[in-house]
Prior knowledge:
Helices cover 49% and strands 12% of the residues. The strands form four sheets. Strands 1, 2, 5, 6, 7 and 8 form a six-stranded mixed sheet that branches. Strand 11 (288-293) and strand 12 (299-304) form a beta hairpin. Helix 21 runs antiparallel to helix 22 (645-679).
Amino acid sequence: MGTRRQVLTEITNERELRSTIDPALKGKPVTAIYGQKVFNDAAMRKYLPYKAYEAIIALIKQGGGQIDDKIAEETAHGMKEWALDHGVSHFTHWFHPMTGTTAEKHDSFLSFDDAGNPIERFSGKTLKQGEPDASSFPSGGIRSTFEARGYTAWDPTSPAFIISGVNGATLVIPTVFFSYTGEALDEKTPLLRSMDRLSDAAVKLLKHFGSKASRVWSTVGPEQEYFLVDKAYYYRRPDLVITGRTLFGAKPPKGQEMEDHYFGSIRERVLAYMQDCETELFLLGIPAKTRHNEVAPAQFEIAPIFEDSNIAGDHNQIVMDTLRKVASRHDFALLIHEKPFAGINGSGKHNNWSMSDNLGSNLLEPGKTPHQNLQFLSFLAATLKAVHKYSDLLRSTVASAGNDHRLGANEAPPAIISVFLGEQLDTILNNLEASKDAHYTDKAIINLGIAKVPQIAMDNTDRNRTSPFAFTGNKFEFRAVGSSFSILPANFTINTIVCDTVSEIEASIESLIKKGKNLNDAVMETILPIIKETKPIRFEGNNYSPEWEKEAAKRGLPNAKNTPDALKAILLPKNKEVFIKHKILSDRELESRYAIQVEKYIKTINYEANTALSMAKTLILPSVIRYQTVLANAVIALKNAGADAAAIADQVSGLNEYAKSVTVLKAEIDKLEAAIAKTNEIHDEPKKAEAFHKDVLGAMNAVRAIADHLEEETADDYWELPKYREMLFIY
């Protein structure tokens, strides 16, 4: 019996519904278990002295500031006691290196007193700072490999939490990560910097509108898409194991054409998995809100409620890790690659971004009064200007080998960054630009003489799911982020560029008021040029259409279709300047990030190409040669049996056609092997990345094309690899 048939037997006969969570948690309302594994407000009130509690809460609410040694010592002790009460034996400083994932090094609480007796100890110094080995993390040339020292520093604004294993639990302390010389070696440091700078700029602008807010946060709700396949398929597909996507696979007779999977009834086995994931996430204080089937078969989504950007970034990494761990317990493999299957929708991470102040106001909420309208228009104009001026930089934050397969396909926005506002808001801006009066229903009236803007309904227009940066009532949905990405780079970039334009708008309004203008006139005089200037970035139509690509070119919008081209934006003077000016990243840190991303692209295509080469040589070619032999033997048998000449000729014709395809496969394998070798001889990294994109990917695609054709021509019993029709529909 062949490998694939064994898999089908295993799945159909041995898979059963199961739960992997503590039975004591079953049936309990979410509110009864939410945040049990988080050192949250309730835990801090119980375990910390009141002054320490007040200091931590003040820092969380206002951001920035320092924790003195006494407060740190008291906090560490309380955190340790809470952890011990939850069965914790180890702690870790948990951080976001520039790998797109997270990192951790576990240490036990074990120590010894002066008499040599074992005790549990966790000091304030240990809480505040750690020293992991930094030598093997990407630095982009900031450090030499032999310079191993790196530091982690506690981020008090993101709560500590507990991760439980089969045989114990670990206290996880969110931190930032930096080098011996002070450069950021992580994604969290620039995010926290950007949140502070955006807050400073936004609070300053808000004061013009009478607001007493003292802090503004960027908020994010990242929707997470993913695929599930049975673990048995996964382990029999070297491409999935090594690269996260299928490098070969013929299109199945049915894909997503019927659109019957989207929002369809969730299979029991998948629902059991989802419920276990949600329970784990609720315990960790992660507000998982929505679950559903996505468009492609075997594709799903989990979506949270909005949180502050730094916490949302931490939580999204935990979500991905939890999805993976729980999948294994249910005999699933989680596929979080942007395009695990060719020909059907890939997966993204819709990054819903907004700004809120400490008084509870969403700054992208249009509001009902003139001052609120002016405030909304100012922050809207700032966002439009930021996206228009730095669209190439935004594109670079979603550039990767995986996302190149997704951007521009039917389920994802194109590489051209544009903004969708909706018919009502777009009309308002057009009328402002034209200085016309506009008349709407009694629920939506605008008098441009005093700059009143109607409240914009959340669903005032149909949702444009083709737009990369779409306004959806009180937030912008940045849809281009890839499913496997950390959301931190996209968000610290959005924060930074919006901070820049908010600062410009505030300075203009302040200057005009000093010259004697009233607030209305100062605001309108400031934002009208921005509305006109940013009109090219606004697009209400179908971003998938070929016509839009032509129109975008006329408008002068950049269209970096691949990662090597997209990453070049990081090094442009205007893009460097915005990070340097606001002290988010230095020139050296930006250069390092460019180098890291280029190197990551090269390594990704290289191991994908070598995986494809290995599979083609050791799995596909042997299979088709075996089947070719079967066809040849069939012809010989017919001849020996004295079969009709016409019948023999027909069989020979079929054999010849098949043999030609096998010959083409072998030739394309040889070309791929040569392309890999030639490209790896290039020493200039940017040029090497371009060669991998152009030459190696092209050779991979050629091997795949003929291999997928042969899959459709080869008898089922002779094809070793699990097929699309099985992985996508039998689980």
